[in-house]
Amino acid sequence: MKNLVIALFILCGHLTFAQDTVKVSTIPNQEAEKLFNEGISQYAGRNFQSAIGSFSQAITLRPDFGKAYFNRGICKFELKDYAGTIADQTKAIELDPSNEQAYFYRAQAHYHTGKKNLALADYTKMIGLNNMSFQGYYYRGGIKFELEDYPGAIADFDQAILAKNDYALAFNDRGSAKLQKEDVDGAISDYRKALQIDPKFSLAQANLGSALRKKGNFQDAIKAYDAAINLKPDPILFNNRGSAKYDAGDYQGAIKDFSEAIKMKYDYVFAYNNRAGAKIKLKDYKGAVSDCDFAIKLNDQYGYAYLNRGIAKEMLRDKTACSDWKKAAQLGVDIGKTYSADCK
User: Fold this and answer.
1) pLDDT tens-digit map of 260-316
2) What is the radius of gyration, based on Cα positions, of the chain?
3) The CA-based dihedral angle spanning residues 253, 254, 260, 265, taken in that order and rounded to the nearest 10 degrees
4) Residue 340 and residue 344: Cα distance in Å, rounded?
5) CA distances from residue 210 to 199, 222, 232, 236 in whole angstroms, order as listed
6) Residue of higher predicted confidence among 146 and 336
7) For residue 107, which of 78, 79, 128, 77 has the smallest C-alpha distance?
8) H helices within the chain, ranges in order?
9) CA–CA gap between residue 304 and residue 328 (Å, rounded)
10) Structural domains of the chain sorted by starting position, each given as residue range(s) with its CATH number in brackets
11) pLDDT by residue (tens digit) across 189-201?
């Protein structure tokens, strides 16, 4: 079975709320203060556009009002105005270079605009201001993971966990980085730790299943996927549980899971191909060809579907099997070269 989707890392977390209402005595300009506090109330009510208007008026009255820039930037972030977020948080940092959360929101905005190096720099600045910034380490580790710097990601997740030892997300993501480094036992340990902290953490449960499957512990992998599906049914989970059942030799069970994945996501190319593989094992060659046909219809560049279709056709004595294997080889499936080498 090839090219199965495994859910691993996600860059996520809870964002910080806007800073608290400013006391009257701390701001000389009473009208600016009033507008700022109105903006805070509007933000709390998730009326972000109105809050932006209030913060903007406060800034007009008091151009050096750093907290107003900061909170307006948060509202813009909520509205996915990332360029506006960057501009406001840059001004907030200019007015208060110690504002750790301004760096955080600017980093988040940089990330969403694809400027990962700038995001990394801002998370590093957060850490420079606070060497126990679990947010800074966690999110910087996440970007390193995406950039395939797995040792760097692990080091940052280590620090995030040191700063916050009940941080389930960091344990989960460190596990995923370890899995990429072929430290399967370390990954399993981290996923289990994440689940000790948060037993309802469906992603960690799913990742545990993937790590157990990679270790060859198929029955425990199936149990982990069972638990993940009970928490949050998802086509990927049915596909992956089906793959574990396939590995365990339960081809009927695998077909049932792949079919459920397809039922949930009709254009799930991998599930069609995987179901074809299970059908081949059960000698349902016509059914396998049909599944591969549909997978190729959905994605005519999916080499493994050509490979499996060629195998099924060969068993049906269909002479076009060779053309499928040659196509698979052209699309980068090495075993297709081996199969097609025997063709006349």
Assistant:
1) 999 999 999 999 999 999 999 999 999 999 999 999 999 999 999 999 999 999 999
2) 26
3) 180
4) 9
5) 17, 9, 16, 11
6) 146
7) 77
8) 30-44, 48-61, 66-78, 82-95, 100-112, 116-129, 134-146, 150-163, 168-180, 184-197, 202-215, 218-231, 235-247, 251-264, 269-281, 285-298, 303-315, 321-330, 334-341
9) 6
10) 11-105 (1.25.40.10)
11) 999 999 999 999 9
Tens digit of each residue's pLDDT (9 = 90 or more) over 232-259? 999 999 999 999 999 999 999 999 999 9
Question: DSSP letters of 38-99?
Answer: HHHHHHHTT-HHHHHHHHHHHHHH-TT-HHHHHHHHHHHHHTT-HHHHHHHHHHHHHH-TT-
- CA 115 to chain CA centroid, nearest Å: 17
Residues 311, 328 contacting (CB under 8 angstroms)? no
Residue 63's CB: how many other CB atoms inside 10 A?
A: 12
Structure token digits, residue 325: 């294997």
pTM for this structure? 0.85
Buried b (16+ CB within 10 A) or exposed e, 72-108: bbbbbbbeebbebbbbbbbbbbebeeebbbbbbbbbb
What distance in Å separates the CA atoms of residue 193 and residue 297, rounded to the nearest whole number? Answer: 42
pLDDT at residue 2 in the model: 34
Please report, for residues 7, 11, 161, 219, 308, the alpha-carbon distance to residue 148 in angstroms, rounded to integers and kept in the order given: 16, 14, 20, 30, 31
**CB contact set of 181 (below 8 Å; sequence gap of 6+):** 150, 151, 154
